[in-house]
Amino acid sequence: MAKGYGKVGGHAAGGVRNQIMSLQKQMQEQQEKIAATEVTASVGGGALKIVMSGDQVCKSVTIDPDFLKETDAEMLQDMLLTGINSALEQSKALSENEMSALTGGLSSSLSGLGINLGF
């Protein structure tokens, strides 16, 4: 058997493995932080508020009682759709921004190790 057969860079392979495990831990921590963060979408001049977590879970819907006196079902439905979609967009943007801060240098770091992720 050839000397070194079956080995991948000796100590370098262990270092890469440790870096990957560290990155996985950081990503998990970041995802937990994102899930604990909330965004609020407000429509109708504050008559309707939607609170959503960073992991796209709707936490609450608040409707001003005075608004209900002045509106019909169709208007309320339209405002709910608008508010929910706005909260979803904010939540997705939050998640993307927070994760990109962690993965921003990932592509260049891995390319230095001879790994290309294609992004």
Explain what you see:
The protein has 119 residues and is α+β, with helices and mostly antiparallel strands. The chain contains four helices and three strands; from the N terminus they run H-E-E-E-H-H-H. The model has no long low-confidence stretch (mean pLDDT 83).
Compact description:
The protein has 119 residues and is an alpha+beta fold. Helices cover 57% and strands 15% of the residues.
Distance between the termini: 38 Å
Using DSSP, what is the number of strands? 3
Q: Please report which band the strand proportion falls in: under 5%, 5-15%, 15-25%, 25-35%, 35-45% or over 45%.
A: 15-25%
CATH topology, which one?
Ybab, Chain: A
Largest sheet: 3 strands, antiparallel
